[in-house]
Amino acid sequence: MRPNLVLAPVALASLVVACGDPAPTPDASVLDATSAPDAATETPDAFEAPPPEVAVEGLGTVRGIRENGARSFYAIPYAEPPIGALRWQSPVAHGAWEGTLDGTSKPPACAQSALSFGALGQEDCLFLNVHTPDPAPSNAPVMVWIHGGAFVFGEGVQTDRGTRGDLIAAAHGAIVVSMNYRLGAFGFFVNDATESSGNAGFEDQILALEWVHDHIADFGGDPSNVTIVGESAGGLSVCLHLVAPGSRGLFQRAITESGLCDSTLSPREDRVSASNDLVHALGCDTAADEASCLRDATMESVRDASGLDGVFGTLTSRIRPWWPYVDGAVIPEQFRDAVLAGHTGTVPVILGWNRDEGTLFVDLAERSGTTVDETVYHSLATSLGASIGVDGTMVEAQYPLGDYPDPGAAIAAMLGHSALACPSRRAAALLSANGHETHVYHFEFPDAAFQLVARPERELGAFHSAEIQFVFGRPARLSRPRFTAEEQTLSDAMQGAWLRFVTDGDPSDASLAWPSYDATSDQHVIFDRTVATGTAADREACTFWDRTP
After folding, report:
1. Which helix (H) or strand (E) holds 351?
2. How confident is the model at residue 161 (pLDDT cuts 50, 70, 90)?
3. Which of 20, 101, 498, 509 is the most exposed place for a label (fewest CB within 10 A)?
């Protein structure tokens, strides 16, 4: 075992950072994908077989279920419940359980408040899920999924089943693992009184990877052939695992989808300031024993006082209060500094982003009642310009209103480029120039299904997170949960490339020759109605944004 805008533009920018993926349905947290239940997956296998069981060395036996040609084991605890004295502390590996663990139902999400859809989840939430082929494999490659959600909401296997790994396991012979990790103030609170480092949520991810390393062989997996995969905040997490000393040796390859990896994490003093606001809101700054006050606070009071539904990190501010940060230990340095110093090794990477990264956030803002007009456009241009040391008029010159059907479309373009596309593009150049075999994609399919009822006034295009449904093979279509023939072809191409990379590090096959990336040739694969090779994705836009203030 390893040791243990004015208000409006700010709200829009908050959504870009907060929404690793589309908004959840009212009874689900869906920041890590968009997908609807597949009716076929709800039908038991025609041939009745006894439920699968696995004896996990040192822990006990877990009983799962058979579904869609796979064996699924849900809600396996990898850490002790982070409650009481363990609230805000580094996670502690879970000990053996009594009897046979029931792994037939998905675990509760971690405590969160998902945009306007209300509060859900619980603090006792550190579970993971394992999907294997059926029958049990031997030395199968392992794909570990890290969900998105701006580190404030989401879950490993969504309530709508959009990121369930059974279809991948059955089709490709790989094992798929997903995890919950602490979110918001529960995972990223910095406080000296409680000795809270502020990176507990990220440490949860590391401990889950340690669990995979130590126990995945019991499920038929190869602990020396692990690929970590994540989108948005999960994609950023993937890049931070390249930096984190505690993650080294726990994975061999990495895939980051819209991961904004070359973004600067907030400094500790900003995080402390935000955390002190929470202490004050809970009334613990005047308590005789601050630490006891904080630990005795109810989950609901912490969740409500931390403002998970409104105090998101924004693109117009340095402060991202509930994100990982450089603490000198768990995350010893910024991603860029680590790569340039050769501290990230030579892990092969797939990295990409979507053509219309910003449209989803404008759409969600409008759904929540924000009026996205010229006032918002001007204000946001000013604040985004300040982030790179230029006047707002220069931003507006890059995104003139006359080039777009409405201010919202212009805002979507500037947000998508500055917050997601360009940090991802910079990371690709950085990794490929410093020892990482890198493959870049640009997702351009304009007609991906979206969970919420379509709004004809806002075309989403190839929106943020749209690609996830094609990787997992589960369309985000509530009315007809099946891919069209065109969508199925795209899903086959993306899932196939991902799983070839997961299996042996080469995403190419006879139908897809995926070139290695370098900044000179600037080649990438385009995933659209047809799969093709392209060059210079968003290069012109990023020439403007890639400057130091």
Report:
1. strand 349-354
2. confident
3. 509
For the chain, what's the residue count?
A: 549
Evaluate whether residue 176 is within a structural domain.
yes
Cβ atoms of 425 and 412 closer than 8 Å = no
Q: Is there a cis peptide before residue 135, judged by omega within 30 degrees of 0?
A: yes
CATH of the domain at 297: 3.40.50.1820
User: For this structure, is 232 an active site residue?
Assistant: yes
Rounded mean pLDDT, 20-44: 38
Q: Specify whether 368 is catalytic.
A: no
Beta-bridged to residue 141, according to DSSP, are none
Contacts 24+ apart (CB under 8 A), 506-514: 507/350, 507/439, 514/439
Buried b (16+ CB within 10 A) or exposed e, 333-365: ebbbebbeeebbeebbbbbbbbbbbbbbbbbbb
Enter the DSSP assignment of 421: I
| Per-residue pLDDT, 19 | 52
Please state, in angstroms and rounded to a whole number, the distance separating the CA atoms of residues 442 and 514: 12
Domain containing 496: what range?
7-545
What does 100-161 look like in DSSP terms, one character per residue? EEE-SSPPPPBSEE-GGG-EE-BS---EEEEEEESS--SSEEEEEEE--STTTS--SS-TT-
Query: Binning pLDDT at 50, 70 and 90, where does residue 18 land?
Result: very low
pTM for this prediction: 0.92
Contacting residues for 453 by C-beta, under 8 A, at least 6 apart: none
Classify residue 1: in a domain, yes or no: no
Contact residues for 422 (Cβ-Cβ < 8 A; gap 6+): 538, 541, 542, 545, 546
Structure confidence at residue 531 (pLDDT): 97
Q: How far is CA 267 from CA 57, 323, 328, in A?
A: 41, 11, 11
374-387 vs 7-18: helix axis angle to the nearest 10?
60
The answer as to whether 244 is a domain residue is yes
Phi, psi of 491 (to 5 degrees): -60, -45
CA 519 centroid distance within chain: 26
- Find the catalytic residue in 123, 257, 357, 487: 357
pLDDT digits 0-9 by tens, 226-275: 999 999 999 999 999 999 999 999 999 999 999 999 999 988 888 898 89
pLDDT per position as a tens digit, 489-547? 999 999 999 999 999 999 999 999 999 999 999 999 999 999 999 999 999 999 999 98
Q: How far is CA 56 from the centre of its chain?
A: 28
Average pLDDT, the chain: 89
Token digits for 119?
């509060």
Q: Which of 113, 232, 266, 317 is catalytic?
A: 232
Q: Are 150 and 199 in contact (CB under 8 A)?
A: no
494's enclosing H/E stretch is helix 485-504
Q: Is residue 405 part of a domain?
A: yes
Q: What is the pLDDT of residues 136-148, one digit of tens each?
A: 999 999 999 999 9
